[in-house]
Amino acid sequence: MGIISSLFARNGVDVESLITNGAVIIDVRSPQEFASGHIAGSRNIPLDMIGSKATDLLAEGRTVVTCCRSGARSGMAQILLKSKGIEVYNGGAWDTLNQKINK
To answer: How far apart are CA 50 and CA 19, in angstroms?
Structure first.
């Protein structure tokens, strides 16, 4: 699987169920993007800061679902957090994910 396709792969995981069962949504867009709209209850940790917050996320012991504008940055965050031992899934674009979980 190429890097681009791996960034967007969902691996058949039902992210809506993960969220229903307590996963935390991490929006990796900039604070300005986040302020313009986001999923209720999500946390904003910009991609350039995600590495420094990985230890805190690991300590929480919760599954993480990342999102961003298109799914590219959240895919990069997924790869980084997974390398730190966090169970993490790429939720893709925040607005699409928001529609899925708020049907």
So the answer is: 20
Give the chain's domains with CATH numbers. 22-101 (3.40.250.10)
- pTM for the full predicted model: 0.87
Characterise 12 by phi-psi region: left (phi > 0), alpha (psi -120 to 50), beta (else): left
Q: Which residues pair with 26 in a beta bridge?
A: 43, 66
pLDDT tens-digit map of 59-69: 999 999 999 99
Choose among 90, 70, 95, 80: nearest CA to 26.
Answer: 90
Strand 64-68 to strand 43-44: parallel, antiparallel, or no bridges (unpaired)?
unpaired
Tell me the residue type at 96.
T
- Beta strands per DSSP E along the chain: 24-27, 43-44, 64-68, 88-93
The confidence score (pLDDT) of residue 11 equals: 54
Nearest to 87 by CA among 67, 59, 58: 58
